[in-house]
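[recover] target loaded
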């Protein structure tokens, strides 16, 4: 019977789970992945596929069994126990916020859990959902080691300048800092580039994580030096349903119009970005297929502001040697990559259209001043690796 590591990524309406087998030499092999989606809705569903992509289960679950994240975690636990021989040796969790201090994954004990709970005010929509499965597993299976891996940790290498807003210092002391997110994705990219393109890693890389959440990161010598995301996952580039850069005066205006905190929060997290601009939706496939001028407007806005963000990160490093696209849009939407790179032609980026259409890995021409690549991210694998490392005491 081989050891396994379970990886959990719990959001407000879904719990994603991935199981890795620990092989000789601590190699990790993905065995299955799935999710409970529609938590809290009238149509929650459980889906899982094996490593070959074959469906293992796909069915509705009773809304009362997935009313909230702890409920849904029980569904995941029950289904997994029927498909596992033995319990996992450890569970790794994606936790959005490691606060100002936690720059590495940590084994969870009471003190760590209390500390992570204290960061809830920094990420009120995400942190409670991330921590809920940790509590359920601690209660039901206290013997299983659990490890928290943070989206903020990779960015703790930022210097004070990158970490600050132009606010009075007391806000910084109270935790209002530019934390940055998507760190697990960027960490994986650095690891992958070290294996496949080691010559680019010592240089100046901008990595663009273009998924439903969108950010870009300036990486010099393998370390994050700046990110377009800051205090929350709202700042920076336009996203599927979040606006990115916004004049804070707009929020004040909304308050003056009588919108409540919760209404503004819902708007900013769920109804803006590509969805808000297009009035159609947040899925880039749908927008690319549409001939509605609003879909065009949304995609053009996206390309412009992402290009602007990428160029801006060059200021953190005195230039850009390598640009890497990743995540759902970055890996799959050749037209969006082309539109972004067209706006960066003045930096010396020249795209190879045929390579771009094939999604890389290299999508720039041989004489492009900046090498442009597509690299598939794998946040689950990096969480599994960290979890195994912590359990092994590494
Ligand atoms: P992620 O958050 O990384 O899962 O990315 C999700 C987003 O990627 C979706 O909302 C789509 O907008 C986009 N996406 C996924 N697949 C494709 C595709 N084949 N072409 C264009 N966009 C895609």
């Amino acid at each position: 019977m081989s050891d396994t590591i379970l990886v959990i990524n719990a959001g407000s309406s879904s719990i994603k789970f991935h199981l890795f087998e620990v092989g000789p030499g601590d190699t990790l092999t993905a065995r299955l992945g799935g999710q409970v989606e529609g938590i809290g809705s009238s149509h929650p569903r459980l889906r899982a596929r094996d490593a070959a992509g074959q469906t293992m289960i796909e069915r509705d679950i009773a809304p009362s069994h997935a009313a909230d994240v702890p409920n849904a975690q029980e569904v995941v636990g029950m289904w997994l126990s029927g498909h596992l021989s033995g319990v996992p040796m450890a569970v790794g969790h994606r936790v959005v916020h490691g606060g100002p201090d936690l720059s590495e994954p940590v084994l969870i004990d009471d003190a760590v859990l209390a500390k992570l709970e204290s960061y809830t005010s920094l990420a009120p929509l995400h942190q409670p959902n991330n921590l809920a499965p940790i509590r359920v597993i601690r209660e039901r299976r206290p013997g299983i080691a659990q490890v928290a891996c943070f989206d903020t940790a990779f960015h703790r290498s930022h210097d004070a300048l990158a970490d600050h807003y132009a606010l009075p210092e007391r806000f910084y002391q109270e935790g209002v800092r530019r934390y940055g997110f998507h760190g697990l994705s960027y960490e994986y990219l650095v690891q992958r580039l070290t294996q496949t393109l080691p010559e680019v890693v010592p240089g100046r890389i901008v990595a663009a994580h273009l998924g439903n959440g969108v950010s870009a990161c300036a990486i010099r010598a393998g370390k994050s030096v700046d990110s377009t995301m800051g205090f929350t996952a709202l700042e920076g580039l336009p996203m599927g349903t979040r606006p990115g850069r916004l004049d804070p005066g707009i929020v004040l205006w909304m308050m003056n119009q009588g919108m409540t905190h919760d209404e503004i929060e819902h708007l900013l997290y769920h109804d803006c970005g590509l969805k808000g601009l297009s009035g159609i939706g947040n899925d880039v496939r749908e927008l690319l297929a549409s001939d509605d001028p609003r879909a065009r407007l949304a995609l053009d806005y996206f390309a412009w502001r992402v290009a602007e963000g990428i160029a801006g990160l060059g200021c953190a490093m005195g230039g850009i040697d390598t640009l890497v696209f990743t995540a759902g849009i970055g890996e799959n939407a050749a037209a969006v990559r082309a539109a972004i790179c067209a706006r960066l032609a003045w930096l010396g980026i020249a795209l190879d259209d045929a390579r771009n259409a094939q999604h890389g890995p290299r999508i720039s021409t041989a004489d492009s001043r900046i090498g442009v690549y597509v690299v598939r991210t794998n946040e689950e694998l990096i969480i599994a690796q960290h979890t195994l490392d912590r359990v092994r005491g590494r």
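[recover] notes: The chain has a mean pLDDT of 96.
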